[in-house]
Write a structure and sequence with these properties.
The chain has about 230 residues and is mainly α. It has one domain: Phosphate transport system protein phou homolog 2, domain 2 (Methane Monooxygenase Hydroxylase, Chain G, domain 1), CATH 1.20.58.220. Helices cover about 80% and strands about 0% of the residues. The protein is built from six helices and no strands. Helix 1 runs parallel beside helix 3, helix 1 packs antiparallel against helix 4 and helix 3 packs antiparallel against helix 6. The N terminus is likely disordered.
């Protein structure tokens, strides 16, 4: 990976380059997820295999961005907000790598489903994918702009994804009960919906990190503890 900052540049320029690299990693992850869902909708095995192969690039780029973050800390010894920006960047690349793994999981289930008869039209699962990807884009936008209000909106929007996941689960259970021959296919679709729900969780994690980065305020588990951010 080549960062644009030159020797002697102020390290704030290097931080901006680091953030640009994180956005690039996010774009790679989003593209792989889009391809995985397209493979699912088209029952396209070769496209699913492309997603699995493409995850190697995501893993490698994650390592490179993380190493750059560590280099910035070691070289410049940042403090206060600058330190939070860089350490948050390290945590975000880990979240993005996990999201990339979920894209691979979707592709793997797609390969299995492509070998079996079609079960049902896909309606809620593509809607879940669109919502999860929008959450990812908005969480990264919040990071770049240091926008706490946008980050909190991302956190709140996760409820809609949970609702869709519950609907998919309930619908597919009815298929399984009505006809045991659908169990394997329905289970794989349930897993795909679960992967998409997890994508939303990771996007939420990124948004929560943005709040900490900007305000030094930890809002993880805030809903669970009954504390509204």
């Amino acid at each position: 990976m080549e960062f644009t900052a030159k020797p002697g540049d102020h390290y704030h320029r290097e931080i901006k380059d680091m953030q640009a690299a994180i956005l690039r990693l996010g774009a790679m992850v989003e593209r792989n997820i889009s391809l995985a869902l397209e493979a699912l909708k088209q029952r396209h095995s070769e496209l699913a295999k492309q997603v699995i192969e493409g995850d190697k690039d995501i893993d490698q780029f994650e390592i490179e961005v993380e190493e750059e973050c560590i280099r910035l800390i070691a070289l410049h010894q940042p403090v206060a907000k600058d330190l939070r920006i860089i350490t948050t960047g390290i945590m975000i690349v880990h979240e993005l790598e996990r999201m990339g793994d979920l894209g691979v999981n979707i592709a793997e289930r797609t390969l299995e489903l492509a070998a079996e008869p079609h079960l049902k039209p896909l309606i809620d699962i593509p809607a879940m994918a669109d919502h999860a990807q929008e959450m990812l884009r908005r969480s990264l936008d919040a990071y770049l702009k240091e926008d706490v209000a946008l980050a909190l909106e991302v956190c709140e929007s996760d409820d809609a994804l949970d609702t869709l996941n519950s609907r998919v689960f309930s619908e597919l259970i009815t298929y399984m009960v009505a006809d045991p021959r659908t169990i394997d296919r329905a289970t794989r679709l349930i897993l795909i919906a679960r992967y998409l729900e997890r994508l939303g969780d990771h996007a939420t994690n990124i948004a929560e990190m943005v709040v900490f980065m900007v305000e030094g305020r930890n809002i993880r588990h805030a809903k669970k503890l009954g504390k509204i951010p």
